[in-house]
Amino acid sequence: MTPLGDAQETDEIYLLSNEDSNLKLRFDLLDVKKLIEVDERGLELWAPISKSEFPMAKDDVLAVFDAIGVSRPETAREVYTMDQFMEELVGPHPSLEIVSVHKRRVRYSIETCMAELTALTANGRQVKTIAAESEDPNAVAAAIESLGLSGHVNTSYSRGLRCVLGLAPVRYAVVDIGTNSVKFHIGEQHEDGSWTRVVDRAEVTRLGEGLDDTGEIQPEPLERTVRAVDLMVAESRENDVLAIAAVGTAALRIATNSSLVTDSIRERIGVPVQVVSGEEESRLAFLAVSAGVGLADGTVVVFDTGGGSTQFTFGHGGEVDERYSVNVGAVSYTERFGLDQAIDQATLEEARRALNQDLSSLDGRTSPDALVGMGGAMTNITAVALSLERYDPDVVQGAIVSTDEIERQIALYASMSYEARRAVVGLQPNRAPVILAGTLIVATVMEKLGGTSVVVSDRGLRHGLIAERFGMFSAS
């Protein structure tokens, strides 16, 4: 980018409300803009309402309060200077916050857009912003992509200032596109670095359906998945998140046409998808467990079994010693052995033997002091064990499931049809086809690592990613 002229420095006063308005004072001018429209990509169309110079007549002053959607104050003058306006009408107003802002701005031209990079100090707190403006929304989208900011949600100055000053929640979103389900998390970060869950759910889309046979993502699973991601991104914007991180795991690592998924999501929704390696998936899962369950001082193994792969992280005292991923997942095993329906004992034993072979990398390892399991199979097993009619992540988090309970559920699912499984209390109905395979994977891991019980983590890759990617936010 080449600067268009020298940097400019200005001092301004913003008047913040909870409405979609932009009200600022600069050089004795009162500038009012109003949000008119937001398109499907989150790009905003703002229109100037007025630009008035002080002194201002009472009727013009009151029209400003009407324009920004806040109550009219009591007036005692026919004409107001800027100081009188601020001291008598704005200062006491319960719906307005006064913010002193210093800006150092440099202008650029990017993809035919006028862009402005600003170092901003607001009430003593510092932040950098970049704005791209054009009458052509496609040009703005292209400029945002060229800057590598497609995952950042368009945020107006007034909304951004409220976040920086702690007047509005600071929220981020993660979309984790897995082989069997798309997991969605919105977290709200506090100034002490802690997080509060706003949204945390998963939708089964079976992206990996048919992948084992063809090596490619099929059209129907692709459409289900893109539709689910679209709704999650829309929900993120409704919750005023500042940025969205989207990642893909095993199915997108394996599929020969994985770019079809990532390109479809970027083109239709405007959010880039990063395909993470199995090792990176393991590391982020370990990070989530460290923050969520807490790891003992002794040795620990964390495993995360999903629809297309299982990740293992070996560590001690909170430190990672080894991590890797194997292509052992519930979707491929379900399709391979017909585990979505009731099966006989011979088929069950055949599936166990295959898993025993495919997880042979665990053979000969010393039993850890703690074994932690995570992923959709593990949390559903736990919800069934606890007979949770409604899933409660806080109850599942840190729960302990025994080998006996795992074996009980294997026998249960092996004897049941797909339809019967859907009625099991605690089991997510859409997970009914793959739950037997998932439970067999958990059982095999526990057997090989000598575990008689497993600690369950409801937290996963999405929680580790949000903490690492966005945990550096600071309003200071």
Give the helix/strand class.
Answer: alpha+beta
Secondary structure tally, helices: 17
- Number-wise, the strands total 20
**Percent range for helical residues?**
25-40%
Q: Outline, from the CA principal axes?
A: elongated
* Quaternary organization: single chain
CATH T-level fold name of the largest domain: Nucleotidyltransferase, domain 5
What's the CATH H-level superfamily name of the largest domain? Exopolyphosphatase. Domain 2
Q: Ends: how far apart?
A: 28 Å
If strands are numbered along the chain, what order do they take across the biggest sheet?
4-3-2-1-7-8-9
Strand content: 25-35%
| Whole-number mean pLDDT | 90
Radius of gyration of CA atoms, rounded to a whole number: 27 Å
Total of domains: 3
Can you tell me the CATH architecture of the largest domain? 2-Layer Sandwich
User: Can you tell me the residue ranges where pLDDT is under 50 for at least 5 consecutive residues?
Assistant: 472-476
Largest sheet: 7 strands, antiparallel
- CATH class group of the largest domain: Alpha Beta
Task: Explain what this protein looks like in three dimensions.
The chain has 476 residues and is of the alpha+beta class. The protein folds into three domains: 157 residues, Beta Barrel (Hypothetical Protein Pfu-838710-001); 116 residues, Nucleotidyltransferase, domain 5, CATH 3.30.420; 165 residues, Nucleotidyltransferase, domain 5 (2-Layer Sandwich), CATH 3.30.420. The protein has 17 helices and 20 strands. β3 and β4 form a beta hairpin. The radius of gyration is 27 Å and the shape is elongated. 40% of the residues are buried. The C terminus is likely disordered.
